Amino acid sequence: MFSQLGSSVALVGRDNSRLQSTRLECLAARKESNLPDLPIDPVICICADLSKVDEISKAYSCVLEHFSCLHVLVSLHLIYPR
After folding, report:
1. pLDDT band at residue 73 under the 50/70/90 scheme
2. Which of 4, 42, 58, 72 could form a disulfide with 29 if both were Cys (CB 3.0 to 4.6 A apart)?
3. What does each C-alpha distance from 71 to 9, 15, 20, 39, 78 come to in angstroms?
4. pTM
């Protein structure tokens, strides 16, 4: 939804192949909405385990490095027993 409305999106998760698949869906949604191209990649993937504090910091740093700011954070996570 965010991509379809023109937002830049950082996808964060542990499974890189799922992240890449979701990234392609986001890019397709942008294209369907006839949004203009951006000077930077509007959808990035960050492979990180957000149950670890240091990886949260790493993910946030990657977002700031790429987009310069963070406006909205949506957390959709599940906790699985390992």
Report:
1. confident
2. 4
3. 10, 24, 22, 19, 23
4. 0.85
Strand partners, 46: 12
Cβ-contact 23, 43 below 8 angstroms = yes
Rounded distance between C-alpha atoms, residue 51 and residue 76, angstroms:
13
Q: What is the pLDDT of residues 27-57, one digit of tens each?
A: 999 999 988 888 889 999 999 998 899 999 9
Cα torsion angle, 63, 67, 72, 77, sign: negative
Dihedral angle of Cα 65, 20, 51, 8, to the nearest 10 degrees: 40
